[in-house]
Each structure stands twice: as structure tokens, then as C-alpha cells.
Write a structure and sequence with these properties.
It is built from twelve helices and eight strands. The chain is α+β, with helices and mostly antiparallel strands and about 290 residues long. It has a domain of about 160 residues. Helix 7 crosses helix 8 and helix 7 packs antiparallel against helix 9. The longest helix has 21 residues. It starts with 6 loop residues before the first helix and ends with a helix.
């Protein structure tokens, strides 16, 4: 059933999670240079490289307005962030949006990691990871891929730069940024570069499909967070990138529980209210422990 937002919910709503246009995202190498090169977490690319999907029960933290958006995204290719584990205080406080609502769902898992990997959505809904993040996840078993990424950028610079000799080469970072500025107002040319970029990335990902599959999927078997060896601290949440999801149930934290005392559903989905966020966290832990993949 449709339910009007309460005053509390209006106060806590804020802008959607950070997004950028694809062209801005791809040509911007702000801190680590080419190590900030973006790798596409495209469901279509993943399906071609790894045809067998991992289907798993997962959880997603959102605010009230996010539930309606999730409802419209069910069964679609667009991906979202989800988790297996989360700190109790995050349930109300939130991550990229205000929290209060934990959505339980079945989903295809594209990537799973034991910490926040900072996957970034572009404006079409496709998510991306920086090469530096993947390198940190995979270490030596994926390091050779760096050479291929540099060669891809160099090939695109040489193909599309008006004057490759004045593009800033051999400084790839400088030349790549300059190429983006050169095509800033050339929509058609920019789209050709982006197409070649994504096609090139798919070829590289296919070449390194075995180590990438291990990096992207192995955590779905473990699903537990280990304390840091030095500090003993545990991450507040792990991160999964999922799509093609189906909502099972909505778990409402104590901040908003009373708003639904007289309701039978939330946006057509079954729900349960809680007096303590800790009870939601306990439910998540028990559910995740029972998952079989």
C-alpha cells in the first residue's frame, strides 16, 4: 500500500548516493594517476566472461524513499551495493543514504569483498571499481594486468588525440586527462572513445578471468569479517555489488517502527519491525550463516 512519508522521514532524506557522468568518471585520474583507472562492473560483461552467476541472499540498507526505487529495479541489470555483515549502529545511521530500513533480497552477486571497496555508480546505474582497489584485493596474482591497462590508455590516446606528439606522452596520466578535455564538447567522438575503452576493458578482463573471478567471488564462500591484525578492529560492513535482485522482506529499525503499526505491508512487501537494531543485526548474522553457495 502507498504510505505518506512522516515528518521524520522528510527530515532524514537526502540526495542519492554519489554519481558522475561516465565521461567525467573515466577521464578523471585525480590521486593515484593510472591506478585510479576505472574497471567496469558491467553485468553484461560479467555474463559473457563468467556465464554462471552466483545467486545469494543479501541485505541492502536504505531509507524510506529508497524502498520504492528498489521496487522498480527488481529483476533489472542495474546494480546496487549490498552486504552480508554490518555494524549495529550503521543500521540507523546509514551508509550512502540515511538508514533505518534493511531490505532482505535474493540477488546475483557480481563482486564480494570483506570491506567497503567504494564501488561507484555512473548515471546509468553501471558500477565501477578503480584499478587500485582491485590491485589491493588481488595483490601479486593480478599485478600483471597493470601493463595491459596502461597499453589500453596509450592505444586510445594515439588513436584519438588530435596531435599525439603534443598530448603529454609519455606521461599517461597527463595525456589521458588532456584527451578528455579535447573531446569535452564532442559528444560523438567521446562516445567512440568510451566504446573502445569498455571493449578494451572487456578483453583485458577476459584475459585475466581466472584471477579476477577469484578476487570478485571468493568472499561469497567466507562471508565473515576478520579483525585487523594490528588494531583488532573490524570493518563496519562488507560490500557486495549485486543485480537482478528480488525483494523478500523489509526489516524496519526502532526509529521508524511505530510509523507502520497499522500497516500490512510496505510498498507491497512483507515487513517486520524491531525495538532494537541489535535484533536486526542478529537476524542478518543467522541468515548469512545459513547461506549455501
Amino acid at each position: 500500500m502507498y504510505k505518506m512519508k512522516t515528518f521524520k522521514q522528510y527530515l532524514k532524506e537526502r540526495a542519492p548516493a554519489w554519481t558522475e557522468s561516465l565521461s567525467t568518471m573515466l577521464f578523471d585520474l585525480p590521486r593515484a594517476g593510472y591506478k585510479d583507472v576505472k574497471i567496469p562492473l558491467s553485468p553484461a560483461i560479467f555474463k559473457r566472461i563468467w556465464p554462471d552467476s552466483i545467486r545469494s541472499k543479501v541485505f541492502h540498507l536504505t531509507d524510506f524513499s529508497g524502498i520504492e526505487k528498489l521496487k522498480k529495479m527488481q529483476g533489472k541489470k542495474k546494480s546496487i551495493s549490498a552486504f552480508y555483515n554490518i555494524a549495529v549502529d550503521r543500521i540507523d545511521y546509514g551508509i550512502q543514504t540515511e538508514g533505518g530500513y534493511v531490505v532482505e533480497m535474493d540477488a546475483d552477486v557480481l563482486v564480494a569483498a570483506p570491506d567497503d571497496i567504494g564501488s561507484q555508480p555512473d548515471k546509468t546505474g553501471r558500477r565501477w571499481l578503480t584499478w587500485n582497489t582491485i590491485l589491493n584485493m588481488g595483490g601479486n596474482k593480478i599485478k600483471k594486468m597493470e601493463k595491459d591497462l596502461k597499453e589500453l590508455l596509450m592505444d586510445l590516446i594515439m588513436k584519438y588525440a588530435d596531435d599525439p606528439g603534443k598530448s603529454g606522452m609519455p606521461d599517461i596520466n597527463k595525456a589521458w586527462g588532456k584527451l578528455g578535455k579535447e573531446y569535452k564538447s564532442d559528444g560523438k567522438g567521446k562516445s567512440l572513445i568510451i566504446k573502445d575503452y569498455i571493449d578494451g576493458m572487456e578483453k583485458i578482463m577476459k584475459k585475466y578471468s581466472t584471477p579476477l573471478q577469484s578476487i570478485f567471488k571468493d568472499y561469497t564462500k567466507k562471508r565473515t569479517l576478520d579483525p585487523d591484525e594490528d588494531s583488532g578492529e573490524v570493518e563496519d560492513w562488507d560490500e557486495l555489488v549485486v543485480n537482478n535482485f528480488k525483494i523478500i522482506k523489509i526489516h524496519v529499525g526502532p526509529t521508524y517502527a511505530e510509523d507502520f503499526e497499522d500497516d500490512d505491508d510496505i510498498e507491497g512487501f512483507p515487513f517486520e519491525t524491531y525495538d532494537d537494531e541489535g535484533d536486526i543485526a542478529d537476524y542478518i548474522t543467522r541468515t548469512v550463516q545459513r547461506i549455501k553457495i
